[in-house]
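Before a colleague's protein record goes any further, I have to sign it off. My question to you is simply how this chain folds and whether the tokens agree. I do not need a full report, just your reasoning and any doubts. This is what I was given:
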Amino acid sequence: QKDDSQRLLESFNTDQIEHTLRNSRAEPYTSKEEILLEESESPLDNNVTAFALKAKVIYPINQKFRPLADGSSNPSLHENSKQVILPNQVMETSTSGSLGSLSQGDKEDCSSSTTIHSTTSDDRFQARAFLKVTSFPEVLMCDSFDVKLCLCSLILKDLMLLDSKLRKEKHGIFIQVLKVYFTDFCRKKKISDDLFKKILLSQENAFEELQKQLDSRLQNTEMSGAHNSEYQTLEDLERKEREYSEHIIDDMEAFWKQTDKAQQAFLDQSKCSSAKATKITMDLTEKMIAVESLLSESQDLQAMDIQEKLFNWELMVKMVNSLKSYIPEECKCRLNIVSNILDHLTVKNSLSVRQKEELLTDLHKAFWEQLAHFSNECIQQSKDLILKQLECRTKKREEFKHRQKAEQGSLLSKTFHKEDVNDFFKAYRELLEKHRQAQWELEEEDDCESTEAVADLYKELYSKASHALAGLVTELFLQTLPVVTGLSVKECELLKEEWQENLVPQLEKWETHRQRRWKLFQEQLLQEKELWIKEYALSAVMQKHLSEKQEKIIQGVVNRLGCLSDESVNYILQKHRLLLCSVLTRLTLRRVGMAVLARMRLSRKKSLLQELREQHTSQKGSSPCQDKDQWQLQKAVESHILEEEGKLEEETQQTHLEFHQQLVTEIQEALQFLQQHMEQVIGQIVLQHARQEAGKRSSDDSQDFKERLVETAVESVYVTSNNINRLVQNYYHQLGEITESYEGKKLQQLKSLQ
């Protein structure tokens, strides 16, 4: 009679548990073509298998990678009955986040890999749908494979909200600066109160209209390509981020034009002199440069907070997923020890093989039911708990926003004079910093509360499930075994004590492995933080280079013009500095968003490589005394990990290069808008200068002509018709020369400008 107890033990695997989990939640849509493609990527090749079996290649049963004659590696060739899951088959499960496998063999099969790279799977990964979440607590219920994607999508959402908030603040501050200058003119009785209110209301309405147009375009972008409202793909996210950036650049150009119109309307109504108008325009530009610097500084600080929040989220999610794996691992340890005890009884002929298999089968079924119940309770109760958390969270956020809005409105409602503008900027900077710090603390507190609540729930459910599993084993030893084996109750109690004694070191061993995996995870996060720091440094260098290059260009244009006054030159340089600062502020945030998208693209391969490292560390620590074959196996695995790390590094550079090229393209488009706007500004200044020069020359030429006319009339003895005609012809000839000279200089100036 064949002993199939080991097969029975291995049959209780993670696929059954994951099936239970998936039945209780919606599944992302997957096309038939993708399913067929996954089936066609089966790693088991019959020819290779046959060759290896004929060659009688024998490897340790726990070995994960079996090197073949051609130097490649293949999962276990002796486990044909089970579907081996490759990382490039983009599965929903993960050893770290799923409920786990109840047998080491299945766990190794699920995580084994011949290679991480697959072009076909890369394309499918970008088109793969994952859950669309709106807040962090929802991520605590996601599949472990989707966690990084969901967290990064939340970061992109936060960056978009930050951009929107700062843009509205810029509109509000510009209105406030205009109000300061209007108030100054009202005090001097240069404009009436009614006109003052009318102009301000007109500008507020214009900015609201700009915001409505932008919201409409962004809404169209959000709705386009949405196949399923509950799910999204990485491909859709990249497209939306790209289109969003284009819309923001267009809105920036519209804002520049509107501010110019507002300044011109203000100057027209004030009816001040040309010199006074130039001074006011330069003052307004200088103040808006200060506003841009203020908002840029606030943006950088808040963007760093958002990125730091991502790392905190990952730690919290990892901790919760670790708690989920407690019960499956305990189930596996309990079953293994029970199986060993029953094997010992079978050897002593106290139990037949058939009886042993029946007992194990019944215990498997009971354990599976408890585990399925635990899984369902985790999902349902955590869902209810998170819904309550979200309700409280929403109320707190609304109160916080209302309080922030009231404080901001109180500051903006104050009346500041022109000489107090710097005090207003200082007060506004302090208010922004206060709000930033308060928002960070509120969000961190909410996230920690949600995580602790879910963790406490899982601990409570784990305690109940563990107690239930212990009860099942106690029932087996004290009630079933005495009847089946004929052993005394005392002997069965000793067997139960033996089981308990063997369970403790097994759980301690698993806890040691868990601590090692946690340490590896923290090291990985530290490396990614260092990568973020490098990205910031690269962004700062790029901004400095771009700023210096643009300043040289505009300085060269001004130098070639040559004829402008110092005031006009300073205004051109100031205006260019303002617009460039606005462009760089926007592109800095876009660069952060691209870094998040790159992280999402590489998340799958990084996760799989991290699993390889964790499993290698666990295997390395589980058997300190290794024979020659095990030592060679460890070296092969280490070599494989190094190879995959090299491939991942290469793909990381390629991905970053692709996003960098895309960023350069967007920078060129933004600078084209900047150039077009500056062409209009410089053109208006040159035209104004040409008119002034033409007016002066016309006045001088007219005076000279009158003097020559008097002299000619005095010197003439006879004033004849021919003399008069000749005099008129000379007059028109001089006018023609003046006009040609003016047109020639104007044409030269325009060519220089171009």
Summary: Confidence is low (pLDDT under 50) at residues 1-120. The longest helix spans residues 628-715.
